[in-house]
User: Fold this.
Amino acid sequence: MLNNFAVCGLLNIDYPIIQGGMAWLGTAELVSAVSNAGGLGVIGSGDAPTEWLGQQIRRTRERTDKPFAVNIMMMSPFLADNMKLVADEKVGILTFGGGNPGGYLADLKEAGVKVMPVVSSIALARRLERLGADAVIAEGMESGGHVGETTTMALVPQVAGNVKVPVIAAGGIADGRGLVAALALGAQGVQMGTRFICSEECVAHPRFKEQIIQAHDRATIVTGVSTGHPVRCLENKLTYRFTELEKAGASKAELEELGKGKLSLGVMQGDIEQGSLMAGQIAGLIREVKTVKAIIHDIMAEAQQVIDALGNHRMKG
Ligand SMILES: Cc1cc2nc3c(=O)[nH]c(=O)nc-3n(C[C@H](O)[C@H](O)[C@H](O)COP(=O)(O)O)c2cc1C
Assistant:
């Protein structure tokens, strides 16, 4: 069985599989299921109020005694309060999305917190490594949610070649082949979002899960490039409207107004046309809702098969 991953030692987990922090969906149900199955569950604080985050931390602790993390969105209006809360609650592992958490690293290191920022460039990865990041999550533009500009295939080996800390690959990974590919590119583990939405434990609305199951390879689109906050979602009436407005030169304020409240409308309330359905390009590969335990088990088993099969190839020079 695949073992010996630096991230497993660093995080005290069994498998090099991290559940990406997801706004609204990274709740105690999913987080504890992933951690109990041997991966790392991550609470997605998104832009939820600090009180909500506190509840999720407590509920997660009721459900698991395994390590878990909190994802902090740098764009959250509750950033300062959330940082205070995770310090008070002594959360041992933090991931950061949507910006540069550099200013917090010295205090976090001092407190012994393990920090894994999401990066989409070598420059940010190197800067955060210098400031003390324990690992970096290199996230390609295939992924669901907020995206950078470089693909996972191109980004991961370049980041891995430029930092000494372990690299976790994210974006476009949903099965054992993806895990092996990430390892081949120099990553020590993977972070998955879209695959875990289609788990039995994820609180996403069944209609959203069904949209992912029905998705094909070109079902997603990136909107919001003009606002400086590009986001990948399943295409629907909301993304058509957003794209139309962007093409017509709508102001940032107008576009932000259109996006307000749409993520919960889509992913929690199941309005698949007017809500935002953040998901990655790998949605087209996902064909069933499974338990978290089965997802992790199947990925590890398939990865081992792929490695064994690859072992039969011999490259002639
Ligand atoms: C619905 C959804 C919400 C997300 N919310 C966040 C978030 O709040 N913070 C963050 O750092 N990443 C967020 N992400 C990104 C995931 O953590 C993860 O890196 C990404 O989904 C990986 O790509 P994949 O979807 O191809 O697996 C989100 C992704 C999705 C699909």
In short: The mean pLDDT is 97. Residues 23 and 175 are 23 Å apart (CA to CA).
